[in-house]
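#help-structures
NK: newbie question, is this the right format to request a structure? protein is EpsG family protein
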Amino acid sequence: MIVYAPLFIVAALAMLFSGMIGNRKITEMLGFVIILGLVIVSGTRYHLGGYDYQNYVYMFKQAPSLAQFNLIDYIKLNGLIGNDIGWTLLNSLIKSLGMGFYGLTMFVALFFWLSMFFGLKKFFANINVLIVIVFYKYFLDMSFVYMRQSIAVALFIIALPALRDRKIIRYMILVILAASVHFSAIILIPLYWIGNIKLSKKKVISYSIIFTFSFVASLMHIDVMSIFSSFANLIGGTGGTKISEAAAGNLYGGNATNILHLLEFWVLNLFLLLKYETIDLGDKSNALIIRLFLILLPIYSLFAGSPIMVRDGFYFLFTYAILLDLLTKNVTIKNRLVTYMVIATISFYGMYRFATNFDNGASYHYDSFLMHKENLKTNVNVE
């Protein structure tokens, strides 16, 4: 925490300062500097990321060079989605550029954090609200542990303008590419049609009540995911196998979500409902973000017992920050700063809790390959 805490404090101060001055240029400049700090911390981490770190080292070693990688034959044999062909291709590319495993970790960190900053800054009056919240929602888990999915999340963020503007070809290319890197992104394909759903306060209230009570299904251990098993035969191949594994609950390791995630969602949802009339739903960006935010509710209620569905929440968690920024834009400076302090307190606690609990606290004490005189061309040996 000796590295994370000071960087977080700088981000929190930048959020407070930006909330007072209201200067977009300065706000984004401060945010970009902190993002670069996150790139360095994530990209140069040394043997941090739990058991997944060893898996990524193994996959990197097994990946062929780009000259030996026959993409067409690989797709014919394994299919485009389901065997993480996009991840293998990225590993091969990094290898062919003469980089080692640390070159891969640095590239993934750069791509993830810069995509998040440049892809989402247009949605914010104060981008530093996002940066403070990512310490809680994305930093030590997504950027340290879930490297493949971080690429998929970044590609989805890049696809947001296409989703908002109903450009189906561009959107589908990006999310299929994301699904080729991490299978969980397959959920993003049917997401295109949520734009056909008309929003109203009454609909949001009804939707919220129905799916909140669906949490009972998780408490009763009802196998909700089995409904997706019928799609396995329809798709076939490796993708079909992955769907079967997901339906059986065997695709990814992990635990069911904590009910606190559902309560956390509801706090923000109540805030949204109270301010609903003040939101300009004629703005396509606002409407899109509300729709994406609402997708989190069934993930944390109906599908709370499914690790794969809980992992899908990462595609939408940035909406917390956008909604908080949107809902505090026209309040008094005093109320805005009080809200920011609450956001900073909760985010720091969330980051601290993850650092102390995940992998028996292995990520609590940061280490960088720079401290071991390693470089981007170094390969890693993990026993």
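mod (FA): yep, format's fine, and the tokens are attached above. Residues 230-234, 236-251 have pLDDT under 50 and may be disordered.
NK: thank you!
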